[in-house]
Amino acid sequence: xxxxxxxxxxxxxxxxxxxxxxxxxxxxxxxxxxxxxxxxxxxxxxxxxxxxxxxxxxxxxxxxxxxxxxxxxxxxxxxxxxxxxxxxxxxxxxxxxxxxxxxxxxxxxxxxxxxxxxxxxxxxxxxxxxxxxxxxxxxxxxxxxxxxxxxxxxxxxxxxxxxxxxxxxxxxxxxxxxxxxxxxxxxxxxxxxxxxxxxxxxxxxxxxxxxxxxxxxxxxxxxxxxxxxxxxxxxxxxxxxxxxxxxxxxxxxxxxxxxxx
Amino acid sequence: xxxxxxxxxxxxxxxxxxxxxxxxxxxxxxxxxxxxxxxxxxxxxxxxxxxxxxxxxxxxxxxxxxxxxxxxxxxxxxxxxxxxxxxxxxxxxxxxxxxxxxxxxxxxxxxxxxxxxxxxxxxxxxxxxxxxxxxxxxxxxxxxxxxxxxxxxxxxxxxxxxxxxxxxxxxxxxxxxxxxxxxxxxxxxxxxxxxxxxxxxxxxxxxxxxxxxxxxxxxxxxxxxxxxxxxxxxxxxxxxxxxxxxxxxxxxxxxxxxxxxxxxxxxxxxxxxxxxxxxxxxxxxxxxxxxxxxxxxxxxxxxxxxxxxxxxxxxxxxxxxxxxxxxxxxxxxxxxxxxxxxxxxxxxxxxxxxxxxxxxxxxxxxxxxxxxxxxxxxxxxxxxxxxxxxxxxxxxxxxxxxxxxxxxxxxxxxxxxxxxxxxxxxxxxxxxxxxxxxxxxxxxxxxxxxxxxxxxxxxxxxxxxxxxxxxxxxx
Amino acid sequence: xxxxxxxxxxxxxxxxxxxxxxxxxxxxxxxxxxxxxxxxxxxxxxxxxxxxxxxxxxxxxxxxxxxxxxxxxxxxxxxxxxxxxxxxxxxxxxxxxxxxxxxxxxxxxxxxxxxxxxxxxxxxxxxxxxxxxxxxxxxxxxxxxxxxxxxxxxxxxxxxxxxxxxxxxxxxxxxxxxxxxxxxxxxxxxxxxxxxxxxxxxxxxxxxxxxx
Lengths: 261, 475, 212
Description:
B: 11% strand
C-alpha cells in the first residue's frame, strides 16, 4: 500500500484527521501514523488545510471569545466528515465536550457544534470502539509503560483501549507504573506559567516510570510526552517517549521525542 | 509558615524546596490513593451514594432560606438560640459576647474550618478568653502558632520531631528529660494535658458538619471524640457554622455521613458521628445548660446567586486536596488561604474576591482528579476555568501569558498567516537544535526551558507534508 | 434590617436560581446492600464491621452480663471498678453474680476508668452503636472513660442508620440532646499519619451483645 486513497464509494467512512497543533508542528510522523492506522481500519482520511488549533489555550486561559471563534472555525472546517479524529485526548475532548458548552448560547452554531461533537473521537478509542480494531498486527520489541493523559482518561473515559491494542503488539512488554492516572505536569500553559510546580509533578511521573524498568513511555497526547521527554533529558535520565500511534502503526523506528538524529 | 508579603510563586518555591514537607505530602497522597482503593472495594455502591449526596446538597441549596428558617424554629423549640451573622466581624463579636455572658475564662474548641475563616481565636484572646484547640492536629498547630494546611488533617505537614519540640516548649510543667521520641508518648501527653482543659472549660465551641432543619440538630463528626467532650462538659455550647451547611432531614444527613468519612480518610465512618439537638433538658444527667448556633454568611449568600454556587455543595472532606498533584507538590500553606487545594482555589476568590488570590485558579493543570473524587461532584476544574474567565476580563488582575495566548488565538484563526509563520518558527527551532534532539535554553520560552529541554521539531508541518505527498483524497 | 433579614433576603435571590435544576429530596435514601438483610445476616455483619472498626465484641444472655463484664475486665487487666449508667435495664441485672466488681451508678468523672452504658441500637452497615444522652445516662458516659462497655440487645441490631434513628425517636419524634453513632474506639492519625487509638475518647470499646 502506497497510501494513495481510492475515491470513496459512499459506505467507507470519511474521516477528517484533526492533526492537533503539536503534532502538526513538532512531530508530523504521529500524523502519518494516525493516518495509516485509520486507513488500515478501512477509513478514507482527509486532512483539511484550514486546521490550526482546537482553541484549548484560549479556553483554558479563560478567553472565551477567542475560544468560541476558533471553535466555529473548526466546526466549519470539519463539519462535512463522517468522523473527526484527533491523536489527542485533550483536543478530542475540546471538540466533543467543550465546543457544545462554548457554543450552547449561539443559535446559529449550537446545532452544528453538537453535531460535530457527536462525531469527534480520540484516535485509539475510535479504532477500538468504532472501527472494531482488535490488533494492528505489528511488532515492537521492548518494555514500555503507558501514561493516561488526564483529558483522555477523565473527560473521554479512555483507559482500556490503548492497553488492549498494545497487548497485541508482538514483542512488547507493557508494565504499568503505579501512578499511571496521575497528571504528568504538562497541563498546557500550566507547565510554563508554574514551571517549578509542574516540573515537580513531572519528576514524580518520571520516577514512577523508572521504577518499572520501562525503556519507553507511551501516551495518547503529545504535550504530555514532550514534557516528560524534556524533563527526563534535563535530568539525564534515559527514557524514550513516543506517541502510542507510532508503536501501533509500526512506525516507531524514528528517533523518540527529543532524541537526536 | 505563612507570609502574606510573599506571593504565591515564592511560597510555592519555598515549599518545593522543603524535604520534610515533600515527604509528608508523598505519604499523604500515596496512602490516600491506596486506602481509597480499599474503601471502594468495600463499598461497591459508592457512585450511587455520591449521586445521592449531590442531590441532597443541591436540594438544600435550592431551599436554603426556607430550611434555615425551619432549622431556627426547631433549635428554639429544643431550648437553643440562633444568631445570624453577615460577616466574619459580626460572627467574632457574637461569639465573644456569648462567651463573656457565660463568664468564660477558657473555651475548648473542636475542629472548625469556619472558625479559622472568621479568625475567631484571635478575637477571643483579645477579649481575654483563652481558646484551647482539642483536636490533636489543631492543638499542635496552636502551640506552633500555625494555621491548618489540610481541611481534615491540619498538621499533616509536620513530622513527629517538630511535634515533640512544640510539646517540649509549651508543656513546661513536665520533666524536661522525658522521652518524646515516639508517637505513643506524644499521644499520651496530649491526652493527659487536654483532659484537664476539657474538664475546666467554661464554654465549648464546635463547628458543625451539617445543620438539620427537620429537627434543629447539628451534625458533628470526629474520630477523636473531642467534639463530644467539648459539647458535653462545659456549661455552654456554641456552634459556629456556615449557612450553606443546612440539610432538610436526618435522612439527608445520613446521606452525607455515608460519603464524608469515606472521602476524607477512606474510613467507613468516623468513630463519633453525633447529632446535637439543643441544650440539656431540665432533667438531663449532664450537658450544657445553654446551646447557641451562630450562623455565618461571610459571602455565601452572594455566592449562591453567582456562577460559583455549585462549590457551596462542598462538605469539607478534603479529598480534593489529598489527591491534587499541585497540592501534593506544594502543600496547603503555599496557598496562603484558609482553604487550600482545588476547593480553596474556588472558594477563596469566590468568597473573598479574585484580587485576594489571583494565582489560585491559575495554578492548576486541570487534571480533573478533584472532580473525580468529590463526593458531591463539585465541578472544580470548570469553576476554576470560570474564575480564569473573570480574571482574563479584568485589567487589574495580572494573568501570565495573556498577550501570548491572545496572539496564538489570533494566529490560529488565520490559517493563511499561521502556515508561513509556523514554517519560519520551525525552521528557527531546527537551526537552534541542530541534530541534538532538544534545546536546553530558549530565551523566549524560558518558562519551558527553565526546567526541561525543548524537543526539536521533526521538521515541516504535517498538514503541508500530507498535501505535498498527494495522499489527500480527490473530491 | 437585621442581619437575619439581610441574609435571608440575599438567600432568596440565590436560591430561586437553583430551584429550577434541583430535584426533590423526598426520594428514598440510597441504602447500600450492607444495610439490608435478614436479622441473622445483620447480626453477623454488625459483629464483622464492629471488629473491623477496632471494637471488641462479646455476647451473653441478660443474666450473664455482669459475669461477662467481670471476665472482660479481668482478661484485659482493667481493674474491678465500673461506673454504670443508671438505666433500669442495667441496674436490674444480677450484679451480685460478679462479686469482684465494684459497681457505682451515676455520672462518670475523671477518676472513672470503665463506663458501662446501654446502646439504643446497632447499625450493621458499619458496626456502629447508637447511644443517647438522657435523664439517666450522661453523655459523658459514652466518651469520657478509657474503656467503654456498651450493652446491646441483639434484637436491636438493624441495617442502616435511618432505622437506628427511628428506634431512637420512636413515635414522638423528639431527639435527645446528644445522639451518637459510635464506631470503634477513639482514634487519630494527626502524628505523621500514623493510626493511633485513644486520643480523647475511649481507648477501648467493648460491645456486649445480649442474646435472648
